Amino acid sequence: MSRPVANLVLLLAGALWGMGFVAQSTAMAAVGPFLFVGLRFLVAAVAMLPFALREHAVAKTGLQTRDWRAFAVIGLFLFGGMAAQQVGLLTTTVTNSGFLTGLYVVMVPFLAVLIYRQWPHPVVWPSAAMALAGIWLLSGGAIERLTVGDWLTILCALFWALQMIFIARHAAGSGRPVTLAVTQFAVCAALGLAVALLVEPIGLDAIRAAAPEILYAGIFSGGIAFTLQAVGQRYTTAPQAAIFLASESVFAALFGAYFLGERLPAAGLAGCGLIFAAIILVEALPPLIERRRRTA
């Protein structure tokens, strides 16, 4: 897969995540956040398991213990991010959550340097700043006084950043992106359901009421989108992937306008423009610089 195609795959993942935000928010009218996380990723694991089994059948080499260990750690990061975001939504506004979650765009390149001494292409830094500014404008260009939910959402952004960095490192190395995705889903589902059994009421009527949201979030914005992320990140760097996945904010706004009748103000439209400008910059500028260097 070429890098441009991989980046289009990441854009598609961002679109699926953007549409899933509505389901993620409304489901908690019926079920608790940990039960929703557990059921969502249980559905995701079951939905994608046949593809992982097919990947295993055609694989030329087996996975090592270190691969399974890395996949499980990625699942822990996924659970940490999902749980912190879901619980945070109970005590923060959608505006604050949308912006604070987007902090992973700037966390990823910094953490990549700190953990792996992996310096991104110089264009990533201004592109990340542009994407974050776009998310800021999309969220209204203001942020209310930080609550416990806001700090949980910042923690969520840190977990997302770590998940992206580890996927970038292990999806390509193992050559088994679908198996990686299903493993992280299974870990996330097991932890979510375990916590839900301890701290949340569980009833079949509540689960049936939230079933449409659970199924959409599990199959599309969970199983398919996170698997697309794992596949796409085999062919691009984590900092570049973070910028493409930041399109989630744009798609969330577009789907909100289409399905819920919400209207973007001028600042929101400017935010969409900045995010897409960052995507174009990080996609087009590096090969252009490389081409000029070769012809110089």
Automatic annotation (TrEMBL):
Q: Key word DNA repair present in the record?
A: no
Q: Which residues form the EamA domain?
A: 7-139, 149-282
Provide an example Pfam family for this protein.
EamA
Q: Where in the cell is it found?
A: Cell membrane
> What residue ranges are annotated as transmembrane?
39-58, 70-91, 97-116, 123-143, 149-168, 180-199, 214-231, 243-260, 266-285
Domain of life of the native organism: Bacteria
One Gene Ontology cellular component annotation? plasma membrane
Question: What membrane topology term does the record carry?
Answer: Multi-pass membrane protein
| Keyword terms, alphabetized | Cell membrane, Membrane, Transmembrane, Transmembrane helix
InterPro entries, A to Z: Diverse_Substrate_Transporter (IPR051258), EamA_dom (IPR000620), EmrE-like (IPR037185)
Q: Say if the entry is tagged with keyword Transmembrane helix.
A: yes
Protein name (Swiss-Prot/TrEMBL): DMT family transporter
Q: Please name the taxonomic classification of the source.
A: Bacteria, Pseudomonadati, Pseudomonadota, Alphaproteobacteria, Hyphomicrobiales
